[in-house]
TrEMBL record:
Its EC number is 4.1.3.38. Pathway: Cofactor biosynthesis; tetrahydrofolate biosynthesis; 4-aminobenzoate from chorismate: step 2/2. Keywords: Folate biosynthesis, Lyase, Pyridoxal phosphate. This is aminodeoxychorismate lyase. It catalyses: 4-amino-4-deoxychorismate = 4-aminobenzoate + pyruvate + H(+). It comes from the Eukaryota. Its cofactor is pyridoxal 5'-phosphate.
């Protein structure tokens, strides 16, 4: 699971396709210690370790050595996409919204017909202990349930035991205060059965993101076959109408975002203070969405990102809206000082 680059050495040139085919020589590692030595050498060139800790039910414990943070190639999640995942934020030494993410994770696993090698309480304990072992105070913890390793067949019948993996990702994220540009995606969105389940089949999401980047935009917006706004490639989307109502698309055909749900719980405070007229979920047409006063992405790692332009059309006056930032402040305050039901203190050694 290493995600880093380095210059190609002379011993690696054959693997990079440099030279004639007749010169192509594949090295055969004589021992696991030789391979491990090479992996350690590669990781030693990385300025900062981005993955301070990983858990694997295959290993049966927590791994601190990045060279050993691997999963079996015959895992059904790897070669058949039979797996689910979720992500929680680590902020200021607390795990934010872990329980709601874990509930969605297990619901996704049930829909994907994947059992867990551990109980819910054990999974929760593992994630807290993993975060503590990582010593990471700010970042994310991402975790997967898979049908497990066993063979390369289509059916998971040959995979005797499901697998649970988790990794802590050290990441210094900040509150998003600048607006971004979006486009309408031409990549077909997933059907509701798969869109409402947080599974590892993310090729449509990847292509939608790449499509946007190729056109100079941050991300794209999916529109369903009925012409209603759906979601972004890995985030929900929300709008402030000209009447100052916070509106999100219904969750019947898209992923029910944990941060989006929390925002819907927090936003009525702005209604009480007179900033918003109301908070609701309903279908929105593209025309309605583009005519909104403000627009934003909502997702765990943002948690809120202002959108100021759709294609070449400004949203509202084309600037980051006041209400957008008030909603952003609500989420950041909740991350920093919210109730114990939202924040779990990590017992670092």
């Amino acid at each position: 699971m290493a995600n880093h680059t380095e210059s190609i050495t002379s011993s690696d040139k054959s693997l990079a396709g440099v030279g004639n085919e007749s010169d192509f020589k594949v090295h055969v590692f004589s021992s696991s210690s030789e391979l491990l030595e090479k992996l350690h050498k590669k990781w030693s060139l990385v300025e900062k370790q981005p993955y301070p800790a990983m858990y694997s039910s295959i290993y049966g414990g927590i791994i601190l050595d990045p060279a050993m943070m691997v999963i079996p190639i015959d895992d059904h999640m790897v070669h058949r996409g039979h797996g689910v995942f979720d992500t929680a934020i680590i902020y200021d030494g607390y795990l934010y919204e872990l329980d709601v993410h874990l509930d969605r994770f297990l619901n996704s696993a049930s829909k994907a017909k994947i059992s867990s090698p551990h109980s819910r309480s054990a999974l929760r304990s593992i994630l807290i202990q993993l975060t503590a072992a990582s010593k990471c105070k700010k970042g994310t913890i991402r975790y997967w349930l898979s049908a497990g390793p066993g063979d390369f067949l289509l059916s998971p019948a040959g995979c005797p035991t499901p697998a649970f993996y988790a990794v802590v990702i050290d990441d210094d994220f900040l509150q998003c205060k600048d607006g971004v540009r979006v486009i309408t995606s031409n990549v077909p969105m997933k059907p509701p059965q798969f869109a409402t389940m947080k599974n590892v089949n993310y090729l449509p999401n990847v292509l939608a993101k790449m499509e946007a980047e190729e056109k100079g935009a941050f991300a794209s917006i999916w529109v369903d076959e009925e012409g209603y706004i759906a979601e972004g490639p890995n985030v929900n989307v929300a709008f402030i109408t000209q009447e100052k109502e916070l509106v999100m698309p219904l969750f019947d055909k898209i992923l029910r975002g944990c941060t989006a749900r929390r925002l819907l719980e927090l936003a009525p405070k702005l209604v009480e203070e007179g900033h918003l007229k109301g908070v609701t979920t309903r279908n929105l047409t593209v025309e309605e969405a583009k005519g909104s006063a403000e627009m934003m992405f909502v997702g765990s790692t943002l948690p809120l990102l202002p959108i100021t332009t759709w294609h070449d059309q400004p949203i509202g006056d084309g600037n980051v809206g006041k209400l957008t930032m008030l909603l952003s402040d609500l989420l950041w305050d909740d991350m920093l000082a919210g109730p114990h039901t939202q924040r779990i203190a990590v017992p670092y050694a």
